[in-house]
């Protein structure tokens, strides 16, 4: 099986003070704890089943996450609804790389992805990271590339 082609997109963070997130109702960002790891993995698994990415089984995923030199629990972002169900999730590396950003299929097109992405940009700017990058599959069916480009991500900065 050959690897899918990706676009590598980046953007500068210097003006992200103007990009404060506007969280949709019934969604709140919470601190990541290991008790949320399985819910995050399940959300990524169901989101990626529709296309746009892939993920290993839970235990290898968690072990790899925790062992990575760029892992920082402060750069892992679960978003829960008022019932405590995870509806969005992002994990980033300390170098300014957004490793994963997913939104529950039933909550797409409600502003969750944009709010989460804006939060990531502000977080990185506050940490002094000048450039944030990510990869997106060229044939990602979720509209993620449109969101990233609308918020200033571009291949020219990669």
List low-pLDDT spans.
none
Report the count of strand segments: 6
Order of strands side by side in the largest beta sheet?
1-6-5-4-3-2
Query: What would you call the structural class?
Result: alpha+beta
**Structural domain tally:** 1
Any key phrases for this structure?
alpha+beta, globular, 158 residues, six-stranded mixed β-sheet, Aminopeptidase
Structure explained in plain terms:
With 158 residues, the protein is an alpha+beta fold. The protein has a single domain, classed as Gcn5-related N-acetyltransferase (GNAT) (Aminopeptidase), CATH 3.40.630.30. Helices cover 28% and strands 23% of the residues. Strands 1-6-5-4-3-2 form a six-stranded mixed beta sheet, sandwiched between helices. Strand 5, helix 3 and strand 6 form a beta-alpha-beta unit. It is globular, with a radius of gyration of 15 Å. The chain starts with 5 loop residues before the first strand and ends in an 8-residue tail after the last helix.
Structure described in brief:
It is built from 4 helices and 6 strands, in the order ββααβββαβα.
Architecture blueprint of SSEs:
Layout: E1 6-12, E2 28-29, H1 37-48, H2 58-67, E3 76-80, E4 86-93, E5 97-103, H3 112-126, E6 131-137, H4 144-150
Parallel strand pairs: 5-6
Antiparallel strand pairs: 1-6, 2-3, 3-4, 4-5
